[in-house]
Design brief:
Layout lengths: L11 H9 L8 H11 L4 E5 L2 E4 H17 L7 E5 L5 H12 L2 E4 L6 H10 L4 E5 L1 E2 L2 E2 H11 L5 E5 L6 E2 L18 E6 L9 E5 H14 L7 E4 L6 H5 L2 H8 L2 E4 L5 H11 L3 E4 L1 H13 L9 E5 L5 H11 L2 E8 L2 E5 L6 H6 L3 E2 L5 E5 L12 E6 L11 H7 L6 E9 L5 E6 L3 E4 L2 E4 H9 L4 E11 L3 E10 L6 H10 L10 E4 L13 H17 L1
Parallel strand pairs: 1-13, 3-4, 3-5, 5-8, 8-9, 12-13, 12-14, 14-15, 15-16, 26-27
Antiparallel strand pairs: 1-2, 6-7, 10-11, 16-17, 17-18, 19-20, 20-21, 21-22, 23-24, 25-26
Bound molecules: 5'-O-[(R)-(benzoyloxy)(hydroxy)phosphoryl]adenosine.
Length: 541
């Protein structure tokens, strides 16, 4: 099989090294599940509402769906946009696609017409898998719009009531022998948080991803008795593989899916299913802490809470062990690859005050100044990384890749970090033009481009403003032109353009001009300081 066009492979000498080290084991995701279905056939793999699937059943469903997907014409390397909430079918669909070598593109449930239209056209997707409706949103209406506007030939597969589309339930065919992918092939495309106009797609191979999954499961000490509550959106890299649901499958444990991450849904599931480990973003960890004080629920089974995706304040970190009766693990990762964990034997100070250290001794870390020179030990600089599960390039993005990677293949994370002598990293800030809204990443340029499409907007600059709960919210500075426009009208305009809700600016401020840097660029640091000062003045009343 030729490699996927638009995928940047690791140079041969690196690939050989990662194989020789035993990191890349030549196993596909589909093989991994097959193996577990043999050793743990009758153990429960997945719990979703009333449904409980054993390993053998998940495996059987994947085979049956693979046959159905083949029947509707999907073949190896076809891209399939998968946008599902936390439902069991997500895994049947993923493993079925993995088995035929088709490539899921993992969209988030929050994505709307603009994002889905982009993924479908950019990846030239043949199919789009959705739920009929979830969390109050009708995905079939979205699919209709996407088909009408950009992809008339798109096949739409629906979990639930399909209407004019293909019901997933109609695709469970008799399993048949199908050619599978190689472990070095791209398994799926994840989304980047992004800092440019449109989200980039991240190609991950079976080999590289499974290495990160196995090593993560190991670091977290996962075993057959572990029960993982998946409360974050299931397709995100953190709950998928760090060690997440895949790590639990690797270990032969049990995954419990929660439709909503709030305490009212999650706490009863923890008690009923004896959940041992779960993962949250910082704002949710804060809500759980507050709720645990108010409501007595049996959380005794919970041994570890992982928190990552955005900065966790050390004060909150310190409250977690007593507040929730479990150990905290900080996780600093990225869909592009590198994941850092605090470890079981780290001191309380390291767990509360750092974002851990890399999974692999072969994760190469560089901390550089603005001129790409190493900073003195312990000082803050740009984090760059290269390693056995960090991509060498975004999918179909040769020009962007020249900026996002060094000539020798290091990924420029856009994060500002310092490293302790122990190797632990502390995230100190961000150089990329992005807002981290409680773990949800908003690329400033993407929202600015939408704003600029409004006739009353002459120029737009989106920056982060501090928020006690989300950590950061977004503030759009606007230079208006022509007829005056109200903030609500701009937000309505953005919604009409079909962007995810979390990208809508939390605040809009009109100005006459933007402060400029020495070289004449918009000075976003000055804008951030401006809004921060306004907010603290307002807080003082
Ligand atoms: C995770 O992945 P992404 O791709 O949504 O976002 C990656 C970015 C990082 O570059 C960093 O800017 C930020 O999210 N981030 C953190 C953080 N974890 C991620 N910033 C501060 N502290 C942390 N603990 O967010 C992700 C992927 C796998 C595991 C965990 C998180």
């Amino acid at each position: 099989m030729s490699t996927l066009d638009g995928f940047t492979p690791w140079p041969a000498e690196f690939a050989e090294r990662y194989r020789a080290l035993g990191y890349w084991q030549g196993q596909t995701m589909g093989d991994m599940l097959r193996e577990r279905a043999q050793t743990h056939a009758n153990r429960e793999a997945l719990i979703c509402g009333e449904r409980r699937w054993r390993y053998a059943e998940l495996d059987r469903r994947a085979d049956a769906l693979a046959a159905g997907f083949a029947r509707i014409g999907l073949v190896a390397q076809d891209r399939v946009v998968v946008q599902l909430p936390n439902v069991a079918e997500f895994f049947a669909v993923c493993f079925a696609l993995f088995r035929i070598g088709a490539i899921p593109v993992f969209a988030l449930p929050a994505h709307r017409r603009a994002e889905i239209g982009h993924f479908v056209t950019f990846a030239e997707a043949k199919a789009y898998v959705i739920a009929d409706q979830a969390l109050g949103f009708n995905y079939r209406a979205l699919a209709r719009q996407v088909k009408a506007e950009v992809a008339p030939a798109l096949q739409v597969v629906v979990v639930g009531e399909a209407e004019e589309f293909i019901a997933l339930d109609s695709l469970y065919d008799t399993p048949c022998a199908l050619p599978g992918p190689a472990a070095g092939d791209v398994a799926f495309l994840q989304l980047s948080g992004g800092s440019t106009g449109l989200p980039k797609l991240i190609p991950r191979t079976h080999d590289d991803y499974l290495y990160s999954v196995r090593a993560s499961a190991d670091i977290c000490g996962l075993g057959v008795d572990d029960v993982y509550l998946c409360a974050l959106p299931v397709a995100h890299n953190f709950p998928f593989s760090s060690p997440g649901t895949l790590g639990v499958f690797h270990a032969g444990g049990k995954v419990v899916l929660a439709m909503q991450p709030g305490p009212e849904t999650a706490f009863p599931l923890i008690a009923a299913e004896r959940v041992t480990i779960t993962a949250l973003v910082p704002p949710l960890a804060m809500i759980w802490l507050d709720a645990a004080q108010r409501r007595r629920q049996d959380m005794a089974s919970l041994r570890m809470l992982q928190v990552g995706g955005a900065r966790l304040a050390p004060e909150v970190a310190q409250r977690i062990p007593a507040g929730l009766g479990c150990r905290l693990q900080q996780v600093f990762g990225m869909a592009e690859g590198l994941v850092n964990y605090t470890r079981d034997d780290d001191s309380d100070a390291l767990v509360a005050g750092t974002q851990g250290h890399a999974i692999s001794p072969h994760d190469e870390i560089r901390i550089l100044d603005d001129d790409d020179q190493p900073v003195p030990a312990g000082e803050v600089g740009h984090l760059l990384t290269r390693g056995p599960y960090t991509i060498r390039g975004y999918y179909r993005a040769p020009e962007h890749n020249l900026r996002a990677f060094t000539a020798d293949g290091f990924y420029r994370t856009g994060d500002l970090v310092r490293q302790l002598p122990s190797g632990h990293l502390v995230v100190e800030g961000r150089a990329k033009d992005q807002i981290n809204r409680g773990g949800e990443k908003v690329a400033a340029a993407e929202v600015e481009e939408h704003l600029l499409a409004h006739p009353a907007v002459h120029d737009a600059a989106l920056v982060a403003m501090p928020d006690a709960y989300l950590g950061e919210k977004s503030c759009a500075f606007i230079i208006a032109q022509g007829a005056p426009v109200k903030p609500v009208e701009l937000n309505r305009f953005l919604r009409q353009r079909g962007i995810a809700d979390y990208k809508i600016p939390d605040r809009i401020v009109f100005v006459d001009r933007f402060p400029k840097t020495g070289v004449g660029k918009v000075d976003k640091r000055a804008l951030r300081e401006h809004i921060q000062a306004q907010l603290s003045l307002a807080a003082q009343g």
